[in-house]
Amino acid sequence: MWTMALALLVLMMAQLVLMAKPLEKNNLCFCTCSGDEDMKIMPQDGLPQQDDDSAEDSAEEYVREKDNGNMARAHRLGEVFAGEVLREKGVYTLGLSETESLLMLKHRRILFAFVVDRTLDECSPNSLLAQAALNVFYDAIQKEAPEFYREMNASGAFSLYLLSARGENPAVHVGEDFAELCQVPDQPQIAQMAEHLYDYFVGFCRDALERIGYVS
User: Fold this and answer.
1) From the CB of residue 190, how many other CB atoms can be counted at a distance below 10 Å?
2) Hey, which of 12, 62, 87, 135 would disulfide with 17, CB 3.0 to 4.6 Å?
């Protein structure tokens, strides 16, 4: 009974993550994994059904990660990344020029949020910790900046960036997507700026994840 209760708790937490993460058109959540596997698309209305053994394994994993402090670390990491999105002078303003429009500033924030999402999905020790961090990350943005959260969902940027990031020369193609989203596809300097931002954001997020000190 105790094990099954924990299993249900884990599944509920995972469902909350899906509700918190930005959803693209048609209510689909784009889920990535490391390596060269195909992109998976998961319906919003729920997770795949788990058998009893799988649910019990998930419950045991949750207890283990909670007891060793990793769940608390994941929550802290989500808070750190959300703080960078929410701060007026967050990392997304790196090299910000006075000539940049408000639209570009918004897409700087969205690009950083995308890199956070991708880094946590690919580089966290396991999916449970990735989901825990992402849940905190998106909950904080939705609570503190609801208008930006809605704009991020409606922009379609995550879909474009995801496809570009999984190909060759991801920074270059993400930069081109950024310029397109900012309605200046004919300005290569904007694409180059976004290319450098993408590379910097990736390094920033990976460093933060390493510093959080997950234990194995």
Assistant:
1) 21
2) 135
113/133 Cα distance (integer angstroms): 13
- Tell me the residue type at 195: E
Is the residue at 47 inside a domain? Answer: yes
Residue type, 122: E
How does pLDDT run across 141-195, given as a tens digit for each residue?
Answer: 999 999 999 999 999 999 999 999 998 999 999 999 999 999 999 999 999 999 9
**Farthest-apart Cα atoms in the chain, separation:** 62
Tokens (6 digits) for 106: 């918004």
In a domain, 216, yes or no: no
Contact 17, 68 (CB under 8 A): no
**Total domains present in the chain:** 1
Whether residue 125 contacts residue 104, with contact meaning beta carbons closer than 8 Å, is answered with no
- Please list, in sequence order, all residues whose beta carbon lies within 8 angstroms of the beta carbon of residue 73, skipping any fewer than 6 positions away: 129, 212, 213, 214
Is residue 81 included in any domain, yes or no?
yes
The residue segments making up the domain with residue 63 are 2-211
Contact between residue 191 and residue 178 where contact means Cβ atoms under 8 Å apart:
yes
Which pTM was predicted? 0.78
Residue recorded with tokens 């408000």: 102
Q: CA–CA distance from 40 to each of 34, 117, 162, 191 (Å)?
A: 12, 15, 11, 28
User: Is residue 150, in this structure, part of any structural domain at all?
Assistant: yes
**Taken in order 89, 93, 98, 104, is the CA torsion positive or negative?**
negative
